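tokens incoming
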């Protein structure tokens, strides 16, 4: 294992390699193959990898907001996997979480309307107990979403020339230069790749250049800066552009996060500038800092042996060449209007507590970790969220390490971090927030709109993949509480009956409806499914005054949303129920 801690020094002294820029695919139809391959990272040595239609990583998919896209993934691995559309607002059945596996030698065909703002998204595997392995082996790719607002701005957008995607990843290699996916040795992630390229450089024109930054590492955070300490400009984060460019000299980016930045290279022909990781400035408690633990002498295995931790090192060297024929030479003053969700419209607030499964210094740093005292159970839906709910989620981290919290389905606005308004570059649209350690907090607001599905959940989890894999994940379904078509629930006169309760709800497979009748009425009690189809009639006829309890056994009915419908001759009450098998 000693060679693993020496690789970083080997990287520094050997010749550089031209940055791989993933090819861009445009259009509405994408046909892709998930495959095994190999890469020659070191001369004469072939490292086994995985990729999407390429030996490592995958093509950049360019999509237009409002268009319908159709994608086919052909899984030629010898293993089951999934493909998740990280950050994208898509139906749950096409989100690509652990509930939609792609077995070997089969295809998966997600198709959806692109609803996101112009932004930088990405796709990667998300199968339980396989996510870290498949991402480490190389399966990941960019999605660039374009829209009319972004097209009106004077921004660089010539892909691969002045608009360049960059994914930073670290991996552990064994003595044979093969990628180690065993999470026990993840603390020795000394092998750095930028776009799947070791010791990368790229030629860029002497003008304003746009870089789309993605932290695709399993654990490590990066602190982005330039070796000449020059300013750069953040123009967008996870889910879209900001109101205006934000001038920074350093930018912390945790696993799963994306930022778009502009670097001013005007009048610098012939010069070289390096994009750096300023690891010496990463705050303690964040993976990548010099120190992450400390309480009771706890530490991450191999962490102290990893020369990347707390160090400054080159991520990518920029070799500045002549300008293009149509250069962008200035930083725009404004970008887009970001209409954030209003806290006054909130329907519900949820609190999520991050804690170790096993208490004590070692558990508080190394995990496994859990949400609200429960490790992930794929058979348990943690939240049932009404469609169109506006919600605030309050996150509290009781562990010794910072956790990048990611939620599927939606983008959110960060309201607070440790009780303070977040820095301007972290405002706008986000889907990952780094929650500080040692009782650190974060609060965000979001809206669950457009899509509901009672059978396929969305996920929320820590995007440190080794934490996610060991149980730091939960799931929710978005449900449409509206009665099915054809049922009018408006009652203008006082009711002579009352639907008291339906319990349990959710249920499997039996639930009991209790209702009361004040005077003799002709009553019916029916079960209707989400489409409005009559499933069964439990009561139909004269009812004397009294209280009634009626059982429904749904042993032979599929999981999903149903409605209990209680009627008299001219009035109606309904109650939504969920059968969860």
């Amino acid at each position: 294992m000693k060679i693993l801690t020496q690789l970083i020094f080997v990287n520094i002294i050997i010749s550089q390699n031209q940055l791989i820029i993933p090819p861009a695919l445009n259009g509405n139809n994408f046909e892709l193959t998930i495959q095994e391959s190999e890469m020659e990272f070191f001369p004469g040595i072939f490292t086994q990898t995985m990729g999407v239609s390429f030996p490592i990583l995958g093509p950049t998919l360019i999509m237009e907001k409002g268009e319908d896209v159709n994608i086919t993934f052909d899984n030629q691995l010898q293993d089951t996997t999934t493909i998740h559309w990280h950050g994208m607002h898509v139906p749950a059945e096409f989100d690509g979480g652990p509930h939609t596996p792609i077995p070997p030698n089969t295809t998966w065909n997600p198709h959806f309307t692109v609803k996101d703002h112009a932004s930088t998204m990405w796709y990667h595997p998300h199968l339980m107990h396989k996510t870290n392995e498949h991402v480490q082996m190389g399966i990941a790719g960019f999605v660039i979403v374009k829209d009319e607002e972004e097209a009106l701005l004077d921004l660089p957008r010539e892909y691969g020339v002045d608009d360049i995607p960059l994914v930073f990843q670290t991996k552990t290699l064994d003595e044979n230069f093969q990628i180690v996916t065993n999470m026990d040795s993840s603390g020795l992630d000394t092998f750095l790749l930028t776009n799947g390229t070791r010791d990368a450089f790229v030629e860029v024109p002497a003008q304003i250049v746009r870089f789309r930054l993605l932290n695709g590492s399993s654990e490590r955070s990066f602190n982005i800066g330039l070796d000449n300490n020059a300013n750069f400009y953040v123009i967008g984060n996870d889910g879209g552009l900001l109101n205006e460019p934000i001038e920074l000299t350093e930018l912390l980016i945790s696993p799963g996060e994306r930022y778009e930045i502009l670097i001013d290279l005007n009048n610098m022909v012939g010069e070289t500038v390096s994009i750096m990781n300023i690891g010496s400035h990463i705050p303690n408690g964040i993976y990548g800092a010099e120190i992450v633990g400390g309480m009771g002498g706890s530490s991450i295995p191999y962490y102290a042996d990893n020369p990347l931790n707390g160090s400054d090192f080159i991520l990518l060297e920029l070799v500045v060449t002549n300008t293009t024929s149509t250069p962008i030479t200035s930083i725009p003053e404004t970008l887009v209007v970001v209409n954030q969700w209003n806290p006054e419209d909130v329907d519900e607030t949820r609190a999520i507590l991050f804690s170790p499964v096993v208490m004590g210094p070692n558990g508080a740093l190394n995990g496994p970790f859990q949400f609200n005292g429960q490790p992930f159970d794929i058979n348990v839906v943690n939240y049932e969220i009404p469609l169109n709910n506006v919600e605030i989620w309050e996150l509290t981290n009781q562990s010794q390490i910072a956790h990048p919290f990611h939620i599927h389905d939606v983008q959110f606005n960060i309201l607070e971090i440790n009780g303070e308004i977040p820095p301007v570059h972290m405002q706008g649209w986000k889907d990952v927030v780094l929650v500080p350690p040692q009782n650190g907090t974060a609060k965000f607001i979001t809206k669950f709109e457009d899509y509901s599905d009672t059978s396929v959940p969305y996920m929320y989890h820590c995007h440190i993949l080794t934490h996610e894999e060991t149980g730091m994940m939960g799931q929710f379904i978005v449900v449409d509480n509206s009665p099915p078509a054809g049922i009018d629930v408006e009652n203008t006169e006082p009711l002579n009956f009352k639907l008291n309760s339906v319990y349990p709800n959710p249920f499997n497979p039996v639930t009991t409806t209790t209702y009361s009748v004040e005077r003799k009425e002709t009553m019916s009690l029916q079960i209707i499914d989400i489409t409005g189809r009559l499933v069964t009639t439990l009561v139909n006829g004269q009812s004397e005054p009294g209280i009634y309890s009626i059982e429904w056994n749904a042993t032979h009915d599929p999981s999903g949303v149903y409605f209990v419908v209680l009627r008299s001759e001219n009035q109606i009450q309904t109650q939504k129920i969920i059968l969860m098998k």
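note: The longest helix spans residues 2-13.
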